[in-house]
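Q: Got a minute? One more chain.
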Amino acid sequence: MRKGAKIVLGVVVAILIVIGVALFFVWSNLDSLVASGIENYGSQATGTEVSVGSVRVSLRAGTAELDGLTIDNPRGYQSDYALKFDRIRIGLDIGSLGSNTIVMDNAIVDGASVNAEFQGTQSNLAQIMDNLKRFVGPSKPSQPETGAQKKFIVKTFRLTNGKATAMAAGAKRSIDIPDISVQDIGVKSGGVNGSELARQILRPIIAKVLEQARSEAKEKALETLKKKAEKTLQDKLKGVKPPPPR
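A: Always. Here it is, folded:
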C-alpha cells in the first residue's frame, strides 16, 4: 500500500474512532443531556428555575420517563414551588426522532402538585403564563423559522391525580384538580416549538386551578358577607322591644 493511501486510511480510521467515542458518550449520557436541556430551556421559557429529579430514556422502547419535574415560583412568592409533577411518561414515535418534528403519541402526568399563591390581583401561576406568552411571542415575518428548529406534536396529553393549594391573605385551602385531557397538540400546525408546547400543556392545568381557587374565594367571600349581614340583623333586633301584650 502506498504511503499516501496509508495516511488517508489512518485519517479515516481516526475519524471513525472519534465518531464512535462521541456516539457512545451521547448514548451513555442521554438521560443527563435530556435533563439538562429540560432545565435550561424550561427555565428560559417560564422565567423561573426549572429542575428535574431524574430522566430515563429508552430509544429502543420509544419511551421516556421524568420524575420530580419542578417549576419554581417567580420572585416575590413564598411557597416552595409553583408546580411539581411526580412522574411524566412519554411514548415516542421513534421514526420522528431524526426529523425536525418530534411526535409524542402520548404524554401522561401522574401526580401533580400546584401552589396557587395570590397577592392582590396577581398570582404566581398567571405570571408564569405571562412569561411563557412573552417567550413564545407572536410570529414575525422578519424572523422566519429555520428548518433546524425542532417542533413537537403531542397526540394525547393527560393529567391524573392532581392536587393544589390556594394561598391568599395568609389563608390556605386545598383544591382537587380534575383529570385533564388535551388532544392533538400541534397536529393542525405541523408542530409547535418547545415553549409553545409548554404553554399549551400548562395552560389547562393553571386555568383549572385558578378557576377553582377564584370560585372558592367567591364562595368564602359570600359566606363572610352573609355572616356579617346576619350578625348586623341580630344586633338590630336586640334593640327592638317586643310590643306590649294586648
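A: The longest helix spans residues 194-238.
Q: Perfect, thanks.
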